Amino acid sequence: MTQPPEQAYPAHVGASEAQPAAYAVHPDPNATPYSIAGAFSWSLGKFSANAVGLVGGALVHTLLQAIGPLIGVGGAFALADRVTVVEAGPGMVEEVGEATLGAGSIAAIVVGALVALLLAAYSLSAYIGGVVDIANGQLTTFGSFFRPRHYGSVLAAVLVLLIAIALGSIVIVGGVIVVFLFWFAIPIIVDRGTGPLAAMKESAELVRANFGESLVTALLVGMVWVVGNSACGIFVIVTAPIATLIAVFALRRFADQQIAP
Questions:
Q1: SS (H, E, C) the chain
Q2: What is the CA radius of gyration of the chain?
Q3: Residue 126 above 50 pLDDT?
Q4: Do the Cβ atoms of 139 and 49 come closer than 8 Å?
Q5: Percent of the chain with pLDDT over 70
Q6: Measured between alpha carbons, how far is residue 122 from residues 23, 29, 51, 65 in Å?
Q7: How far is Cα 39 from Cα 9, in angstroms, rounded to an integer?
Q8: What's the mean per-residue pLDDT of the chain?
Q9: Which of 77, 142, 181, 203 is buried most deeply by CB count within 10 Å?
Q10: How far apart are CA 175 and CA 166, in angstroms?
Q11: Gap between the Cα atoms of 68 and 231, Å rounded
């Protein structure tokens, strides 16, 4: 049976059933070859049609990411050991207070880092899940961006990626290369339920098979993020959704091109 011309996105393994064509903003993106202009146009169209959920979700998830650092930094200072040092000079005595990190401060930092990791995985699995719903042609609501998808696998992938980035950063550009090779890994997990290591492998294969397009797309997404983090990051609630839409669009198209006969 021929797919309706206004189908928002082709069916994928693990994808939810698409909504009627009347809800689609753009025709099937597979109708034309992948291009940056096409990705940006599709993303802007989807953003305008789902702005409330995308912007609201980005705002809430951005605030959630501040909880871990607040616990770590705030707890470290609150639980720091305070020592009073008396400095005596000629004819004077001065008390100087100093704070040192004790066991309580270190525990607060560890708890803050753990909370940050858990919330980062939650935000990625839930927010990207909402974007995947959009790519599947579904109607989204504010709550669509707060339902985690394959959370355990996303959490494991985030942990593995952080370790890989840290190890790669031993070489100056190593961390950047790791990010570039595996930037599709988490969207693959959310979209298809693939395991962390398999998703990383597939991401690297897609990037290598579409190196030029992947590089230009990654640079575009990077520039969108830079704009979002300008002016103290106040624009990130707009640029983050667009960057995520572009990434999901590119992932779907690269995957489709790879399996095309």
A1: CCCCCCCCCCCCCCCCCCCCHHHCCCCCHHHCCCCHHHHHHHHHHHHHHCHHHHHHHHHHHHHHCCHHHHHHHHHHHHCCEEEEEEEEECCEEEEEEEEECCHHHHHHHHHHHHHHHHHHHHHHHHHHHHHHHHHCCCCCCHHHHHCCCCHHHHHHHHHHHHHHHHHHCCCCCHHHHHHHHCCCHHHHHHHHCCCHHHHHHHHHHHHHHCHHHHHHHHHHHHHHHHHHCCHHHCCHHHHHHHHHHHHHHHHHHHHHHHHCC
A2: 23
A3: yes
A4: no
A5: 78
A6: 28, 29, 21, 10
A7: 13
A8: 83
A9: 203
A10: 7
A11: 23
What's the token pair of residue 121?
Answer: 């995985």
Q: How far apart are alpha carbons 128 and 166 in whole angstroms? A: 24
Specify whether the CB–CB gap between 28 and 5 falls below 8 A.
yes
User: Within 10 A of 87 (CB to CB), how many other CB atoms are there?
Assistant: 9
Flag whether pLDDT at 248 surpasses 50.
yes
Q: State the CB neighbour count (10 A cutoff) for residue 199.
A: 27
194 touches 258 (CB < 8 A): no
Q: Which tokens belong to 206?
A: 């897609």
**Residue with token string 């959310």:** 190
- Chain segment 195-239, per-residue pLDDT in tens: 999 999 999 999 999 999 999 999 988 888 888 777 666 788 899
Place of tokens 């690269």: 254
The count of other CB atoms within 10 Å of the CB of residue 231 is: 9
Give the pair of three-digit tokens for residue 79: 């639980």
Instruction: Decide if 175 contacts 192 (C-beta within 8 A).
Output: no
